Amino acid sequence: MKSTKTQIKQILDANLNRVLEGIRVLEEIARFIYNDKHLTFSFKELRHEITAELKNLQLKPNLILSRDTDSDPIKFLNSKEETLRKGLYSIILSNSGRVKEALRVLEEFLKLLNIKSSRKIKSIRFRFYDLEKELTEKFPAKKEILSTPQLYPILDINFCKNIDNTIKILNKTKIKLLQLRAKNISDKIFYKTAKKLRRNLNRDTIFIINDRVDIALAVDADGVHLGQDDLDVKVVRNLIGERSIIGVSAENFSQIGKAVKDGADYIGFGPIYPTETKPDASDVKSLRKLKEISKRSPIPIAPIGGVKPEHTNNLLKNGGTLISVISSIFGSVNPENSIRKFNKELMNFIKMKGGK
After folding, report:
1. Which residues of 278-297 are buried (b: 16+ CB within 10 A; e: fewer)?
2. Is 111 exposed, middle or buried, given 0-12, 13-18 or 19+ CB atoms closer than 10 A?
């Protein structure tokens, strides 16, 4: 039977390791991804202060000797959340959480040994809150919009008769998410159109380029949407960076799993309804299939293919998040009216869901 003092040392040892490991992860993100010298130094300073505080109590050597990993009941326990990371933001949140929890544990149990050290850890905990906020604020808020029900118009240049008028409509209806697609169009026209959209869309509109990573980089788009025959997500991520959005078209669980593992931000799934927009589209998927894949996917689903305003509610109820539309908007006589119909259906769903 272990003594209470030994058990307390084991608790301190376990949580000291959690704190130092978690802060180190955040320190590396600040250093290598954001190249932020101030945050990097601040995280490093916290690590050293925590280590020095416990070393001054002459507990650090004894903490290691009190370690007993063989009898630790959670040594092989890994939750689904622990083994899955949805991207950089998920890593930041999970490690910030573990640091805050472990600091609180150190603070509480040090009260039994040295109240001065407990107070020191408390002050460090509050300093960490500020650093956490500073780091998370660096992550683009634009990605957060992907997890809430949105209309996701896909502007096919072949449907666009007047780009200036289209931009006016998109801005007037306050579209938050837009993809530009161009098939059988010269690179020069694609680039000029993309550049014009990037310059003239509302500043808070997220602008995605279909397929072409080079065009996305050239116009400073917010991300790209990739097909199964395009470059792998990992390759594209290295080119456009963690802050950019990457969507991937997928038709089955295997493709979705790979996209998620490689770091995609959302999945395009379809066609849900018959469509003439994409001649090479695969077989129509059912709402039941949409519901199945949405339950198994940790990232948002963008249902696409033949989507009309009256389909919106069923798509959202069955796990869709980003309602992707091409011809029902840009192929209609009145695109502005079509957008308003979709937005009305979205708002009705949100109100109904919020009222439950």
Report:
1. beebeeebebebbeebbeeb
2. middle
Closest CA to 206 of 181, 231, 238, 180: 180
Query: HSE-up of 41 (CA within 13 Å, CB side)?
Result: 3
The neighbouring-strand residues paired with 226 are 248
> Domains in the chain, please, with CATH?
4-136 (1.20.1260), 141-355 (3.20.20.70)
Structure tokens at 13: 């040892």
Rounded Cα–Cα distance for residues 239 and 217 (Å)? 9
User: Within the chain, which residues score under 70 in pLDDT?
Assistant: 1-3, 59-87, 140-141, 276-283, 354-356
DSSP string, 304-320: -SS--GGGHHHHHHTT-
CA 156 – CA 261 distance, rounded (Å): 29
**8 A C-beta contact, residue 101 and residue 17:** no
The token pair that represents 323 in the structure block: 């309602």
pLDDT digits (tens, 9 = 90+) for 315-340: 999 999 999 999 999 999 999 999 99
Give Cα 98 to chain centroid, integer Å: 19
Find residue 268's DSSP bridge partners: 249, 302
Q: Which of 275, 302, 330 is nearest to 151 (CA)?
A: 302
* 309 HSE (CA, 13 A, CB side): 15
SS3 at position 274: coil
Which tokens hold the place of 57? Answer: 């109590």
| Residue found by looking up tokens 């990232």 in the block | 299
Nearest to 169 by CA among 348, 332, 347, 307: 332
**H or E element at residue 208:** strand 206-210
Are 28 and 91 within 8 A, CB to CB?
no
Give the three-class secondary structure for 78. Answer: coil
- State the Cα–Cα distance between residues 263 and 242, nearest whole angstrom: 9
> What is the pTM (predicted TM-score) of this model?
0.65
Phi, psi of 100 (to 5 degrees): -65, -45
Phi, psi of 150 (to 5 degrees): -140, 150
